Every structure is written in C-alpha cells, then in structure tokens.
Amino acid sequence: TPYPAHLDADFPPLKNDLILRVARGEDVERIPVWIMRQAGRYLPEFREERSKHDFFTICRTPELACLVTLQPIDRYEGLLDASIIFSDILVVPQALGLEVQMLPAKGPHFPEPLVDPSHLARLKKDVNVDAELRYVFEAITLTRQKLDGRVPLFGFVGAPWTLMAYMIEGGGSKTLSKAKAWLGQWPEESKELLQRVTDVVVDFLVGQAKAGAQLLQVFDSWAGELSPAQFNEFSLPYIQQIPTRVRAALREIDPTLAKIPMVVFARGAHYALESLSTPEIGYDIISLDWTMDPVASRKRVGDNVSLQGNADPSLLYAPKETIKKEVAVMLEKFGTKRRYIANLGHGMHPDHDPEHLRAFLEAIRDVSSERNS
Ligand code: 1CP
Questions:
Q1: How far, in Å, CA of 243 to CA of 262, rounded?
Q2: Under a CB-based contact definition with an 8 Å cutoff, are residues 39 and 352 in contact?
Q3: Model pTM score
Q4: Residues 76-115 pLDDT 10s
Q5: Which member of 81, 88, 284, 289 is catalytic?
Q6: Active-site annotation holds for 166
Q7: Burial per residue of 105-130, b for 16 or more beta-carbon CB atoms within 10 angstroms, e otherwise
Q8: CA pair distance 97, 108, nearest whole angstrom
C-alpha cells in the first residue's frame, strides 16, 4: 500500500522557520545553523543506544531513529535550527537488493559488491520504495510529530555517483579505483547503473517529503574524486534530474509539497559551483566544503541561491576561544543575514568533543546577534 501523504496541517505548527526563510531568499534576524552528522558517535547518548542495537536496526526502527535524531536537538536546545533524520545514504543500495553491514570501527561493508556489469542483473528492477524504505518514512512522520515544531526536519539521500562508488568499492576507499575503473572501462553500463540509482533516489525523496521532511539534502560526498569532465558526464546529469523530477511528482500530490527546498553538497567539486547553482536545475541551497572560499564562492554563484557551510570540521579540535574567533571570520566572509546557513564543511568526527560543538553553535548565535544589534 502507498505511504500516505502528510501536509503541514497534519503536524504541530513550526516555531522556528529561519532555515526555510533563508532557502526562499528572505531576510532573517540571525544566521541559522545545523551540523552535518549532528547525531552520531561523538555523542555519548548515541553510543549508549548504539551499544544496545545494530546500526541498521536503529535506522529501521522508527522509535529508535526518532530518539537519536532528537538527541542533538535536546542536548543543544535552542542552538540548532534544523534536525536531520537519522538514517544512512546506504539504505538505497539495500533497497536495490545489495546487502550492507556496518562494521564496528570500519564503517560500511558490502559482502558482495558489484564487480563488473554482469552484476547489474543482481539489482532489483522497479524498486517499490514505499515498501522497501517505508521504515524511513515512518521515522520521518514520527520525528516531525515529536519535534513539536521546534525546528524543521531534513530528509536526505546519497547522490547517484557516491552511491555507485560504494556499491562497487564495497565500502569506504581512499582512491575509488574500482568505481573509477568502471567509468573508463564500461561507461555505458556505468550510466545505466547511475540512472537506475537516480530513479530510486527520486522516489525516495518524494516519499520523504510526503512523510513530512521539510528540506531535502543530496550528499555527493565523493564528487571530488572525479575530474571536471568526469563530473560533468557521470555525476551532474543525474544530480540535475533530481529537483525537477521530485517537484513534478510532489506537485501531482499537492502543490505545497513541491515547494520543498533542496540542498546539494558535492564535496570537493569546487569546479562545479556554477553548474550546480544554475536556476534551471533548481537547488535552493549549495553546501560548501571547507576548502572553498566563502567570498569567491558567493561571487561565482551570484545572489539567487543560498550557501551553507563551511567550517573545517577540525576546527572543533581547537580551543574554544579559537573556535569563536574563526566563527567570527567565517560569518564576516559570508557577510549576510540573507541566503546563508552556517554549518561545517563536512560532518562531525566520532572523536569530537560535544562541548566544542556547543562553543561553535554559541559563537554563531553570539556573533550573528551582535552584528544584528
Ligand atoms: O545527524 C546525522 O547526520 C546522522 C544521519 C546520517 C547521515 C546524514 C548518518 C548516520 N549518515 C549520514 C550520511 C552519510 N553516510 C554520508 C553522507 C555524508 C558524509 O559525507 O558524511 C556518507 C558518505 C555515509 C556513508 C557512511 N555511513 C560512512 C562513511 C564511510 C566512509 O566511506 O568514510 C559511515 C562511517 C557510515 C556509518 C554511519 N552513518 C551514520 C552514523 C552515525 C554512522 C556511524 C556508524 C556506527 O554507529 O557504527
């Protein structure tokens, strides 16, 4: 059975819409902030839950996914302006029929990765995301209720290229040499794989918006391993299908759903900033990694998209005074209470000190209110 569509009226009223206003290009009274990987292993309360349950059991149990999604929101009450549903980008390869395990300390592991194009036959055709990924939709609906309107809720997916990379490498990799070998050896079959992943990713984002997600982020975490030409051939064509197709499907259900803001994070793809921010593609927010200069990036994208980012995650290892100083520099460079969302340039590390994240969040709050007064 199809998962039911949920509209704003089905949920508690939103009390903090700063991020939604930034996505629409409206002025805000202070700079909003959320953090990639804000739920996770750096939090003792997460490790406690994790000691009791397997990683994918947490993802597949809506009450547990909701619980860990809310952990950073509760701990940093009033300091975070968005939540992101607890899940993983690798639930999409699972929905396509591949087994994925989460090994302690090692991370994701595919016992049987795709070795050559004959293995495309192992992937499910016509994936029914309402059945395969219903647990994510249930987690989103429950979490949106439990958030009680405190902050908006992000849904997310991995970008087709990044998912292809994991499906072939079978886990994390330094060079992605197997996945990149496919691009040269089997370009047409690579594109078939990318297209099949894209089709599932589109349905999955539509389902997350229907379930109650209020923003959607696409993570192309491995974009930076591609040359500009490879990116233009094997990543961009798929990333750029997503907003139009997702919004068209949502419009059929309800026009208000189709307005959902969409974010793209193509880590390391500094050359792609202009192409990703083209209005025809339809991303409202571009998330920058920490290697990008805010001032130069703003010049390159113009004034019609919002930027998100981009402190080096390693800043959180520095003393709190250094964190505060660097935050002031970052906000100065992004220089505006329009079209900017503070974040790190990539996710939290497992060995980050939660109190240093608090210092980062407080600094954003303090600096952005000082500049307002
Ligand atoms: O608050 C949150 O953001 C938590 C939800 C979340 C998200 C958005 C998790 C939980 N994973 C992700 C996205 C994700 N997963 C990405 C894109 C963002 C990024 O680049 O960081 C990627 C690349 C993955 C794949 C993945 N899953 C990795 C990286 C491995 C590598 O190649 O270096 C790892 C370590 C995981 C496992 C994972 N996912 C999430 C958590 C908390 C964990 C730790 C697993 C554990 O508890 O054992």
A1: 7
A2: no
A3: 0.97
A4: 999 999 999 999 999 999 999 999 999 988 899 999 999 9
A5: 88
A6: yes
A7: eeebbbeebbeeeebeeebeeebebb
A8: 15
pLDDT tens digits, residue range 331-340? 999 987 789 9
CA of 348, closest atom in ligand 1:
21
* 8-264+273-284+297-306+334-340 CATH, one of 3.40.50.1010, 3.20.20.210, 1.10.3720.10, 3.40.920.10: 3.20.20.210
Select which of 50, 60, 196, 298 is catalytic: 50
Query: Is 37 noted as a catalytic residue in this protein?
Result: yes
- The label of the residue with tokens 């908006």 reads 152
ipTM value of the model? Answer: 0.93
Q: How far apart are CA 20 and CA 43, in angstroms?
A: 27
Residues 65, 68: Cα–Cα separation, whole Å: 5
Domain ranges of the chain: 8-264+273-284+297-306+334-340
